[in-house]
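Section: Multi-chain targets

For targets with more than one molecule, the full set of components is provided together so that the structure can be written out for the assembly as a whole rather than chain by chain. Components appear in the order listed by the source. The example entry contains two components.
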Amino acid sequence: MNLEWYWAATALFGMSLIFMLVGMPVALAFCAGNLVAAFMFMGGANGIIQTVNNGFGSMTSFALVPIPMFLLMGELFYHTNLATRCFNAADKLLGNLPGRLSYVTLIGGTAFAGPAGSSMGACALLGSLMVPEMTKRGYNKYLSIGPIMGVGGLAVIIPPSALTVLLATLGQTDVGDLLIAGIIPGFVLALMYGVLIWAWTRFDPTAAPQYTAEPVSRQEKLRLIVVDVLPMVAVIAFSVLIMLTGWATPTEAAALGALSVVVLAACYGEMTWSAWVKSLEGALRITVMSFLIIFGSATFAQILAFTGASSGLMSWALSFELTPMGMLMIMLAMILFLGCFMDQLSMMLLTAPIFFPLAKTLGFDLTWFGLIMLLALEIGYTTPPFGLLLFVMKGVAPPETTMKDIYLAAMPFIGCVLLLIAMIIVFPPLATWLPKLSH
Amino acid sequence: MNRAYTWLVNAMAWLAGLLMAAMMLSICIDVIVRNLGFQSSAHLFTFTEYALLIVPCLGAPWLVREKGHVYVEILLMSVNESLRRWMTFAVGVGCVLVCGLIAWYGFEVTWTNYVRADVDVRSMDMPRWMVVIFIPIGFLMMGVEFTRLLLKGESVLGDLSSALSTQKTESKP
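Its structure, encoded as tokens over all components, is:
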């Protein structure tokens, strides 16, 4: 069928969106939108055959291997109780620091959410675990709910992160570079969060009432650091470092990382059969879902190109003759908008096939752009009024928590991520220096 | 029959899990062997790539039964109970259709590949149909699982919390 590109674009985006909005599982909604579009634009049944063939090609791509591996690593961390060990150790080590539970939430949350790079599970877990505890201790809602909403921004950029791998693959940019690019901004963001909590407790000590934590002897503290914290940090640092030095590819780093968690857990005597089964199950869940979406998305990008929709959309966007910065802002705004009703995976799949080529045309460094996009995806997820994570939080927080509480609590942490994005835009080496160094 | 089928779906999920563990090990072995100065087998690499397709296809029917798929619930949440039930039913029917279509054409692709003896050239010449066939099998069984849920009068979608908290589920594959 010969159609103007804008009809093709509307049909493609529109159908996938409608299927999603009526509640069709995201993976199948993508497949459905593609099937209809393939049928319309690629010659009827042949189009569908093409969809299957494309799916085969894009799913058997080696660049995607880190996804199941990072997911497995994350689940192993969780089900072998290694993440809990870190969490408890942080709790004890922080002593009587004002706002200690907020810091504990941040550190623990990053440990839980890190490898998957997705904050939904961590938000649900921490929301039900930490918020009641903090409320009991008299913490105000900003310091109890806020850090949980902030964890995601941290988890998505600090490697290992499965989501990063997917974005790099979709944007056809270097997976290793994008993973490494997140390291420095990740630390900067963690620092900002830390300062935020510190300043808050300083100016308003009642926000996080002091309570005397169980005293921990120096010897015990040393033991906690050596036994419970250092090995976990070493495993993560190991998988990042071998990638950074170019000794291993991201795929190998991911697999070795997962294996080292297995070995470590075995050393603690935590590598039980049931932990194995649960970890594999958890990783399988997300892997199946992600790859079904990838199956649908392979054709999505192709139809976009085939019908002239991608080039049409691009020249249309460029016809406004905005500055590259203006374009970047519009792209960010679109992600924020989509974040109102979708998860990051779906947002990525809808936007990446258009945004990355556009970024390339505008002369952006793709690693730099990818990192900004990752952060924006996370903010879109947490932005009032409809950010998905806000509703997850509402679902697990104590019943008296109102939606407004959650909005207000999330604000300062979203502010930090926005500030980080601004910093990366103004000072690109923040994102690009380390990947360049590793070459 | 029903039992045997449930068993099959479970067995496939187990196999998918095992494959994932095998992927991890094979990549690690590859790295270690290479660093010991030996030539490692390029077939390991190919195996991993194929596993990427086979794992989701084997696990897909199980995920449907577990109602583990994420979906956008903003509209479903804002309509009344009876409309929601209708929409969920319609979504279920839609899912069956999508799976059925992909399965049908997937078998056609597989058959064409078989008849033409197409090979997928990677580290070895793999008959393409042997790998492609997992796509129609996976989608066909997904469709069957959706149908089973519909026939039982159950919603094909999980409740919000179960779809979200991947880490809190205790059920075994």
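Chain A has a mean pLDDT of 83.
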